[in-house]
Amino acid sequence: MSSVVVAGIGELVTCDGTGTDGLGARSGAAVVVEDGLVAWIGPQSAAPAADRRVDVGGRAVLPGFVDSHAHLVFAGDRGDEFAARMAGTPYDGGGIGVSVASTRAATDDELRALLAARVAEMRAQGTTTVEVKSGYGLTVEDEVRALRLAREVTQETTFLGAHVVPAEYAADRAAYLDLVTGPMLAAAAPYARWVDVFCEPHSAHAFTAEEARAVLVAGREAGLGLRVHGNQLGPGPGVQLAVELGAASVDHCTYLSGADVDALAAGTTVATLLPGVEFSTRSPYPDAAALLRAGVDIALATDCNPGTCYSSSMPFVIALAVREMGLTPGQAVHAATAGSARSLRRDDVGRLVVGARADLTVLDAPSHVHLSYRAGVPIARALDLRA
Ligand SMILES: [Zn+2]
Known about the structure:
Helix content is 35%, strand content 19%. It is α/β, with parallel strands linked by helices. α12 packs across α13.
């Protein structure tokens, strides 16, 4: 057993549910880590002896960010599509097919290297847990490959065969639905914890409420937890379907009705907000502060993907949520840690409490407020405690 005491912490944010915004923020604290887990938190002056000491020099320490929505297994580049969108071309989900073609053409080793680089890029910005979806393969073989590679970097893997209807099935959607709820699901399930669906009647490429229900019910029967892409391009059925089926999370929530908010407040489904997508598609931002006032559990994630948000940065997402969605800096940090952990039904990450994973993120700043105050400045990184 090896232990390390993390000392010299300016502000310690634990997200343990106490204090302002549930941040459990305190000064003068130290954290003792044993074998990768938090063993003790308390005043530095009372810290028990440890094998090693790491002094962070007055910096703030937070739970590592939990990025609960990311599409990291893809090849190719869609910078031209982004430029066209900024010049006025609307987004309709059709560009996903471009990434499907490049991803199918890539070798395992090419995809593995791209995935590893993206995970490293996230860690360098303070993210210590990431969910990774398939969805750029859309054949049995290519979806299984994406999940198999994702499993090499995270336990939070999500089968998203129902990302779009691939071009070769455009004339026979029912046949693709049979595949994605049948043989493809059966092959993918051993590599996945979750099933997800792009429920979006406003896109001809995505899935209707009835189709999405079939995907989710089949996934649940295969033993997977449920997640939904919903209400991204306009008002729609995704949120209510997610709540009705007890999904862990419904993601995007860009367009919410009063009934959607009521359903979320009454249910157990977390509303995961992805402000990098509103930024990258020039869409209106949902009112996160109003969701909190209504009693909805919220999370923040990047949706890092080659089309609608090619940013891996949780600090960027936090800054957007503060500036554009009405959250306080503390509420945004909570949503990006404990909130997103909840959307993954995890209580061992996203909080610094005894027994939780010792995933610590350190800021080159004295407090969590600087994440949004110093937007765009690379102040956050995962703390490496290996000797
Ligand atoms: Zn997504």
